[in-house]
Amino acid sequence: VFFFFSFSFSSLCLCAMLALHRLGATSKLCIQATARLFSLAQGQKFGKHREYFYTIDHQGFLFLADTKIKNFTSCFKDRVFLDFFFRHLARNKTERHADFPFVSNCGIERNFLRCYDTPVVFQKLVPSPEGRGHALQFAGSMTIPFDCSALAMSQDGHFYHRLPVQNTLGKWGLLASNLAIEIGAHVVSARGMGDTDPLRDLSSSPLSQPLTATPPPPSLSLPNATRDMSQFLPSGQALLWDGRHYPICLRD
């Protein structure tokens, strides 16, 4: 009896939904959302391609888009895979899945990526592979030279580093929280500095120039630095690095 009642109730609900749909009462938005849900199946085929969907968060962790709980335990950690993924990452020009603005191609696979902010998120400050200065690390083990004049801040206080001009991923890479705190320890107020210690004008390092490495300080604890991130403003701040002050511009 219970089975018959459950079956009858389910059938009644289905019939009611179909009737509402025929009457035009079913929300078009709900239909689109349902279709969208089914159009994002991992490994779905489109022509000769298979499509996969990923997201990257503000810490630079890469996940499958449908991962329910996103944290360090569920993100991708294989450095070889991560380096391959980001080395082949480019703007999405496939006319597919516009809400995933980037795609990494691997043979017949198309790996679409959606970002929290920027596709490149720097996670560590490491010794430069060239043996001089420091580099910013992202993906698995990929790096770019750390340039003191290439830092910027957003209005909400996020730190960014300018990307090399030879890329298609945008102008800026986000600094993950731990790295922002580490470099933020070198940020001081630019106000009140005398003429004997002028700030270097950013115009001397135009955005069209390639990045250059800058020698690092002997340690990451400098006098007069502050870790109080709430005091940082998007203007009037400078990076105290290796005895020099570098203005921090606004991110454009």
Give your account of this protein's structure.
The protein is an alpha+beta fold and 252 residues long. It is 19% helix and 27% strand. The protein is built from four helices and 17 strands. The protein has helices spanning 2-22, 28-38, 79-87, 177-184, and strands at 44-46, 49-56, 62-64, 89-91, 102-106, 109-115, 121-122, 124-127, 134-138, 142-145, 151-153, 159-162, 172-175, 187-189, 237-241, 244-247, 249-250. The strands form four sheets. Strands 1, 2, 3, 4, 5 and 6 form a six-stranded mixed sheet that branches. The longest helix is centred in the first third of the chain and has 21 residues, at 2-22. The radius of gyration is 25 Å and the shape is elongated. Mean pLDDT is 75; it is low at 1-7, 12-35 and 192-235.
Quick structural overview:
The chain is of the alpha+beta class. It contains 4 helices and 17 strands.
Shape: elongated
Derived structural class? alpha+beta
- Strand % is 25-35%
Q: How many beta strands in the DSSP annotation?
A: 17
Sheet having the most strands: 6 strands, mixed
Q: Helix count, per DSSP?
A: 4
Low-confidence stretches: 1-7, 12-35, 192-235
Give the proportion of residues in helices: 10-25%
Order of helices and strands: HHEEEHEEEEEEEEEEHEEEE
For the termini, the CA-CA separation is 67 Å
Overall mean pLDDT score? 75
Based on CA atoms alone, the radius of gyration comes out at: 25 Å
